[in-house]
Write a structure and sequence with these properties.
This protein is 63% helix and 8% strand. It is α+β, with helices and mostly antiparallel strands. Strands 1-2-5-4-3 form a five-stranded mixed β-sheet. The radius of gyration is 32 Å and the shape is elongated.
Length: 414
């Protein structure tokens, strides 16, 4: 009996709680600000919820811990969730990134993965709980925050939704479902949310893969433009690598079972490997599927870029024209067609296309820059100089543009 903790004075504890409340709010606010700053720097932008545990909940938990300790003959557990923050992420893949970023910024006292003990057949509450140490300069002066920690729960939007509903139906309710059909319904709901999280992550990963492939293709395309147009003006431009690797496969090899997204990703992969013949085959196969107009416009644009990379300029021009016919507001297609005209030394047509691109997107650097080059070639040096100055407002450190302006000024002085 000597090991039993004395009954705590509720009145004394409540008085201490109230006197520390403002300081606790200040500590919690600063902890949230530091977490948000850390995650912002890491490129993560989740939602945040935070709370200070109410005195009623605090006291009830303290009594529970004392009762459990009395039964077990051990000291009572400390209350570690007086300060709590919930970090809510859109995707499962963000959870580990958030945890790692916080671990680099704060001292982590404890990590608990709720639901990790379940088998793949079971569904229920899932969340990662961290106990972060409150830095001494923040915890100073608060005797009530013992131990000086802040609980952080990291979960997805759907995990958070389930936790909120489960808390209302199971933990706060006086009556919880006992019959198996009702329990199965709850389990099915949670399984659907878990599956949705997985599917959302798969879709996001797929989008990132497409975006990365598009970025690689764009870089290679711009290099080809520099090689095709700038070699007559500037020296030192390197040749692009020649396509190689596997033999091009015919469209029939692609198979009817592949989705449009699968085909597009495969085409972009081939495009980025400089296997332009194969990329063109796949783009053509997609067009033969007669997709929606907005998709056709996109594919014509990509195939035109592949034709351009193969120096098949007439076919590239036709594809960029097809894109413009479907989507007259596509300034990139107008710009790309203008580039083709420049390569073919049809500078008046190139200027018309650059004008069209700039009418849609007045701040497009490359349309302004390439139009300046076209004006230079037709010896309209005042307009070339005006475009050089406009383009330099957008990219003042562009060396090729500076060189072009110097050439224009030299011509004007002659």
């Amino acid at each position: 009996m000597d090991s039993i903790e004395p009954i705590p004075s509720r009145a004394s504890l409540e008085k201490a709680y109230k006197s520390n409340k403002k300081l606790l709010e200040s500590i919690l606010g600063e902890m949230v600000a530091r977490m948000q700053g850390t995650l912002d720097t890491a490129g993560l932008f989740p939602a945040y919820k935070n709370r200070i545990k109410s005195f009623q909940s605090y006291f009830a938990k303290k009594i529970k811990f004392m009762r459990d300790a009395s039964s077990a003959g051990t000291p009572p557990l400390p209350i570690t969730d007086l300060l709590a923050v919930r970090i809510i992420c859109p995707f499962i893949g963000d959870l580990d990134r958030v945890e790692k970023a916080l671990a680099e910024r704060f001292t982590v006292r404890e990590v608990e993965r709720k639901g990790a003990e379940r088998s793949f057949k079971e569904f229920g509450y899932e969340s990662t709980h961290l106990l972060l140490e409150v830095p001494p300069e923040l915890a100073k002066g608060s005797s009530f925050l013992d131990p000086p920690v802040c609980e952080v729960q990291i979960r997805t939007i759907l995990q958070d939704a389930w936790a909120e509903v489960e808390h209302e139906l199971v933990y706060k309710a006086e009556f919880t479902p006992f019959d198996d059909p009702m329990k199965r319904k709850l389990a099915a709901l949670n399984a659907n949310l878990t599956l949705s999280d997985m599917l959302f992550q798969e879709i996001r990963d797929y989008q990132h893969q497409l975006t990365n492939e598009l970025a690689k293709r764009r870089v290679a395309f711009f290099k080809k433009i520099e090689d095709a147009i700038d070699k007559d003006l500037y020296a030192g431009i390197k040749e692009l690598p020649v396509a190689g690797g596997e033999e091009p496969k015919q469209p029939a090899w692609l198979g009817p079972w592949k989705s449009l997204d699968d085909l597009l990703l495969e085409a972009l992969n081939a495009h980025n490997r400089a296997d332009y013949v194969r990329a063109i085959d796949i783009y053509s196969h997609i067009l033969a599927m007669n997709p929606k107009p907005e998709i056709r416009a996109l594919i014509f644009k990509h195939r035109g870029m592949a034709f351009f990379a193969e120096s098949r300029y007439d076919e590239a021009r036709e594809d960029f024209t097809a894109t413009i016919d479907i989507d007259p507001k596509c300034y990139k297609a107008a710009y790309y067609r203008g580039v083709v005209h420049s390569v073919k030394q049809n500078y008046s047509a190139a200027i018309d296309d650059f004008n069209n691109a700039l009418a849609i997107h007045p701040y497009h650097f490359y349309s302004t820059y390439r139009r300046a080059q076209a004006y230079y070639h037709i010896e309209d040096y005042p307009k070339a100089l005006a475009d050089c100055d406009s383009a330099l407002e957008l990219e003042p450190e562009n060396e090729s543009l500076k060189k072009l302006k110097g050439m224009v000024l030299k011509k004007l002085k002659m």
